[in-house]
Design a protein that fits this description.
By secondary structure, the protein is of the alpha/beta class. The protein is 37% helix and 20% strand.
Amino acid sequence: MADAVVIGAGPNGLVAANLLVDAGWEVLVVEEQPEPGGAVKSDDGPADGFVRDLCSAFYPLSAASAPLQSLELEKHGLTWRHAPHVLAHPLPDGRAAILDRDIDVTVSGLEALGAGDGEAWRRLYGLWERIGSELLSMLFVPFPPVMAAAKLAAHLGPTGLLRFGRFATLPVRRLAEEEFSGPGSLLVAGCALHADLMPESAGSSAFGWLLSMLGQQVGFPVPEGGAGQLTASLVNRLQDHGGRLVCGRRVEEVVVRNWRAVAVRVADGEEIDATQAVLADVDAPQLYGGLVNWDHLPARLRDDLRRFQWDYSTVKVDWAVDGAVPWTAPEVGRAGTVHVSAGMDEMTQYTAQIAMGRVPDRPFLLLGQMTTADSTRSPAGTEAVWAYTHVPRSVRGDAGDAGLSGRWDAGETERFADRIQEQIERYAPGFTGRVRAREVSGPGELHGHDANLVGGAINGGTTSIHQQLVFRPTPGTGRPETPIAGLYLASASAHPGGAVHGACGANAARAAIRGRQLRTQTALAGLTRWLMR
């Protein structure tokens, strides 16, 4: 028995649990995997002495997240590390766009690539300095974000607010056309492609701008020793404050009586009572109609969830590299994160091929040079490198010549890894000759690391505007409350969505604390049922 049972020990579940113990609750976290972390884990490989991050790897939103920062994880074993440069985008002609935490370095480099591009970057960052804190406050709280929205409106004024609204809805391709003369815009466009957005998608400029401006402000930090150290610090803090964690136990049902969540039932049949709340750090389709039977849920929700859209599938490759990656542009070797793509048109081609169900022939790569950021990741004179790219959830054909069918068995993932390596070779000739070992993780392997990465989807559902804000995970309130009193959705399927910021878990925890009175819980659950009826 506990005041609250948290299902899932990913970052959202662990943030929620920590906030609940801080409020004086007795908390039990139940995780089906043998170790906690969800998509925030690390292990040894792909060669002796190397550390690889199994899924996520760098954490700008963690560094900017009020919920995570409030936990003071540095007191519980977490140390952040930074590469000399934040981000690089190598170009086919041997030059590179560079993002550095020193804005003057960023500006001077971009100005050399395109007249006026440095000042364009400074303008974009000036906007961020003016409203970024309010924007993050709006993003990381449930709807409606009244106070943060009022502060944003006061800063911008009526006409400024209209212009910002236009800016936020721009496709990133249009933003590049309006603001940049050269390839400096690729830093923003590449950040937009961290999500499942095309350069032509409405709102892609806002996503790319937010992430690239965070890179300018706080960098893309990594935990010293591997991503698992972020999880370890969350677990250490939880246990130091009296919370409990059990791993290797799979929750099969949320027990509902009289429209209220009262317990969870694990695979061996044991029922664990939750006297106040159940918080589910699981994806929405796994919760609704899965852990909670449809008999307890509004009929409209079932129809809405049928329309739930996952983000793209993912293939990830880890390499153990002797020496440094031999980038044609040497400054790229000082960046912790690298975007690999010839330019905006190739990005459009890549995303269009995925939209048509075709495996991309020249995939956009998000690549990490982890030893450059954290020297503990591999032996001296080597580099721990990874890259991931997206592929269709349902493959209809291969845009390349390897005949990939979407089975993603060992043979297909290895052939696709060869294609990924060829893409790196275009900007770092001789890379393959320096590879000591590699490991490939297809959609199935990623799903195996974390049950929420369904089919290799890493964002808990599409980032497109039709499934954001009050539409996430289905049209409703944009809040963590569910149609069941005392049950809260705490995963990336809830607003504000994917990335390691802990806000989904924090919102659920705070909702549970506010709703501790049965009358409040019942009223909010009733409102949610009414909206979904």
